[in-house]
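Why do we care about 3D structure at all? Because function follows from shape, and shape follows, mostly, from sequence. That is the central idea of this module. The next example makes it concrete: a single protein chain, its amino acid sequence, and then its structure expressed as tokens.
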Amino acid sequence: MGRDAACALTIDSPLVSRRHVEVSWTNGGWYLRDLDSSNGTFRNGVSVTEVAVGTAIEVRLGHPTEGPTLVLSTAAPQLPAGVITIGRDPTNT
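And the structure:
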């Protein structure tokens, strides 16, 4: 995820790096990782480089209080293998 149009999720903000964060499956769980972004990734106002995605996490990209907010959750409806959804609408893909 980032500002670059080639990202799977584009976030249009000058605070967000071209490639800012990624979400990946590691060691049996989902993790959000900062990709050495210029302005950082923040959870509860604290800079983080990696966060486990539990039932719900909220991070800000680029600034601890002013950056765009990203909310991620592993609590999703049962989906076919390999499908990831982003958003609250149950029909999103």
